[in-house]
Amino acid sequence: MAGGKSIALIAHDQKKDAMAEFARRNQAALADWHIVATGTTGGRVLDACPDLKVTRLKSGPLGGDQQIGALIATGEIDMLVFFIDPLTPLPHDVDVKALTRLAVVYDIPMALNESTAERLIKTLNH
């Protein structure tokens, strides 16, 4: 991801509508970012905001979480927004923990819910 700021967007199944709505509400701010998203989440964001620059990776359970983790480790992601559904069992919970651990290790801003994501996107765009 040469040049510019990159943001990773991921949402669990029950949070995909919330992620699409977050993108729609913040479309102007997100236009300044290169967006990397897991497969289905990226598709939902593009449906809501077709003018955004979104690179879709694999679905989370099929390796998308790990692809984003690798981009974090190589310094290619500047911020992570990961809408987690704490009330649904996650078959790929190990991948989720690895991804959030990498965001902490590499000290990038990370939002795990909408209110934090709203504050981060506003803060980092100024």
TrEMBL record:
Protein family: Belongs to the methylglyoxal synthase family.
PROSITE patterns linked: METHYLGLYOXAL_SYNTH, MGS
Class of the enzyme per the UniProt entry, highest EC level: lyase
Molecular function terms, GO-annotated: methylglyoxal synthase activity
Reactions it catalyzes: dihydroxyacetone phosphate = methylglyoxal + phosphate
EC code: 4.2.3.3
MGS-like domain location: 1-126
Pfam families the record matches: MGS
Name recorded for this polypeptide: Methylglyoxal synthase
Keywords carried by this UniProt record: Lyase
Xref: CDD domains: MGS (cd01422)
Function: Catalyzes the formation of methylglyoxal from dihydroxyacetone phosphate.
UniProt GO BP: methylglyoxal biosynthetic process
Organism, as annotated: Rhizobium lusitanum
Keyword field contains Hydrolase: no
A GO CC term attached to the entry: cytosol
Active site as annotated: 65 (proton donor/acceptor)
InterPro entries in the cross-refs: Methylgl_synth, Methylglyoxal_synth_AS, MGS-like_dom, MGS-like_dom_sf
Residues that, per the record, bind substrate: 12, 16, 38-41, 59-60, 92
